[in-house]
What does this fold into?
Amino acid sequence: MEFRYLGRSGLKVSEISYGNWVTHGSQVEADQATSCVRAALDAGITTFDTADVYANGKAETILGDALAGERRESLEIFTKVYFPTGPAGPNDTGLSRKHIHESINASLRRLRTDYVDLYQAHRFDHETPLEETMTAFADVVRAGKALYIGVSEWTPDQLRAGHALATELGIPFVSNQPKYNALYRIIEPEVVPTCRELGISQVVFSPIEQGVLSGKYKPGAPLPEGSRALDEQGGGAAFIKGLLTEETLTRVQKLAPLAQAEGLSMAQLAVAWVLANDNVATAITGGSRPEQVTSNAAAAGHRLSSETLTAIDEALGDSVQADGSTVGQASPTTRLT
It folds into this structure.
């Protein structure tokens, strides 16, 4: 496993991290989830990402149980706050002072730890003053409940404003967590340059684009049994539905010989592509089976040739989404409750 610094900080994280979105507590059972965590540890992964909203707290509980007994100092545990939790009452969502303080305490209980390494604003809260949010984060850091602060899916202007307040408050704002992969590159025009300037790293999710870049979804073929595309109950199908077009799947298949030439699987090629961006500190990979986790982790340290990177661009062509103006649209304009 290779390691990179998180933002302009002294914290190192594993290039490949393990995340349990749409898996723990919903798509896979606890025993299977624990096996995936064990596989991640065996592969040298030290960085684990979750959120309080995943399966309404169950994902944090399962991760905490799976990591119990590990040396805490040898792990980097990330979690997030924003989306509705609990009974989803009027104050059970957003980035208010009340919700942040109640959420960090609940997350620490579920994760069975005294602190998290990174506490992230899961989205931007348009209904809470940013000063209130950042002051609450500062209190969390000063209380020793989180070591660093990050955000997810913020716009360049939001990143600048949040970073300025964090600097004023003396707390380390080190990361942004966006969706990023070879098919989805909307952070490249403005977010990445802004973050480079501010000393903020990307902690990216969906590097394999919900499994689409693994090549397992073939154009004109039935959806594979047990795949995320068929997971209606756990919610996986809803996230992947729009990607399963004939054109996109046909273009993705053109990546197969490129992966073979690099000595990688198509999924590993997708992860290595993300890591070719030096503003990316870690690529969050999931997996519902231990062997998937192990295979994804093998992409660490593999540097793609410039010829391969160019060939990937040519293969994917017009299927790539790169419109930077769409950044921030994942943040609801009003609270969800």
Summary: The chain has one domain: 3-326.
